[in-house]
Write a structure and sequence with these properties.
By secondary structure, the chain is mainly alpha-helical. The protein has four domains: 79 residues; 72 residues, Arc Repressor Mutant, subunit A (Orthogonal Bundle), CATH 1.10.10; 30 residues; 96 residues, no CATH class. The chain is built from eleven helices and three strands, in the order αααααβααββαααα. A three-stranded antiparallel β-sheet has the order 1-3-2. α2 crosses α4, α5 packs across α9 and α6 packs across α7. The C terminus is likely disordered.
């Protein structure tokens, strides 16, 4: 790769790392720990994308491809082999989608049925076994109850409250979601950078204000995104549920394309000015509409 391409590419990578590093520092992740994760990512991609199928993934070969010392590769691969953590974002999403779209679990008006927790036919147990085999119904239900996505009744039934699963940001599943969202977006950008001609890439667009919005305008825009974005996502989610190959997550990779779409609201960060929350608080204080938490904050 020429320096003409490498320098702006590295500059872009540094820029995109800013919000990620902000999260890491906020939660006590050191540079050394993060650098191990970066080395691991280099090893992952070199193993999958750069070494031909059937060729050995030796430490020496990986060292040549990545520039990482063999001793470091050996240490990181040993760490990966001992990592038995498991989170279930995909399983939870499949259960919620099926409960909202599988005709067996829908009532006369297309609304999700209230179903018994256990049973061999239409039940939460059967739903989990069909769409998320490998996890216990009780464990998955406990997670849905914790985030108020479902309700367990006194007579042993389960009711769906929300088809969208939003875990706490610092839960293992919430952190998996963070990795997925960012990875999906960057993978789309990478795919589009490699396209040969116009129109061959994946859909990737954004709208942005050039001069900025007032606080009232920002709040109105945020409300509009939440309303219209949710509507669009539910339309797309319904379409995917109607058209996907049933049991598609069990098909061989060469017969199933897992795809989707994401919508997110962004705000440009400028370290020289307050963020949007601070701006909104200051305006509310000046207008007298801010609710102080205590007298200390008022002073």
């Amino acid at each position: 790769m020429s320096e003409k391409v490498k320098k702006p590419l590295i500059a872009a990578c540094r820029h995109l790392l800013h919000p990620l590093v902000r999260i890491l520092i906020r939660h006590g992740v050191s540079y050394g720990e993060f650098s191990d994760a970066v080395r691991g990512a280099f090893i992952d991609i070199a193993s999958v994308d750069l070494i031909p199928v059937g060729r050995p993934h030796s430490d020496s070969r990986l060292s040549i491809l990545t520039g990482i010392k063999k001793e470091e590769i050996r240490r990181i691969r040993a760490q990966d082999a001992n990592d038995d953590s498991e989170v279930g974002l995909n399983r939870i999403a499949r259960v919620l989608q099926a409960w909202s779209q599988d005709p067996e679990y829908l009532g006369p008006y297309g609304l999700p049925l209230e179903i018994p927790l256990y049973g061999d036919t239409i039940s939460f147990e059967h739903l989990v076994k069909t769409y998320a085999d490998g996890v216990t119904p009780r464990a998955l239900l406990d997670e849905l109850l914790r985030v108020n996505a479902a309700l367990e009744t006194d007579d042993g039934y389960v009711r769906l409250l929300n088809r969208t699963y939003l875990p706490s940001p610092l839960d293992p599943v919430g952190l998996e979601r963070l990795g997925n969202v960012v990875s999906y977006f960057i993978d789309t950008v990478d795919f589009n950078l490699q396209k040969k001609k116009q129109g061959e890439g994946r859909f990737e667009r954004y709208a942005i204000t050039m001069e900025g919005l007032s606080a009232n305008g920002f709040q109105a825009f945020d409300a509009l995104i939440r309303e219209k974005g949710q509507e669009l996502l539910e339309i797309l989610d319904d379409w995917l549920g109607e058209n996907e190959i049933k049991g598609g997550h069990r098909l061989p990779p060469n017969e199933s394309i897992r795809t989707g779409v994401g919508i997110f609201h962004f705000v440009e960060k400028d370290p020289t000015i307050p963020d949007e929350n601070e701006i909104l608080v200051q305006i509310a204080k000046r207008s007298g509409t801010y609710e102080f938490k205590d007298e200390g904050e008022r002073q």
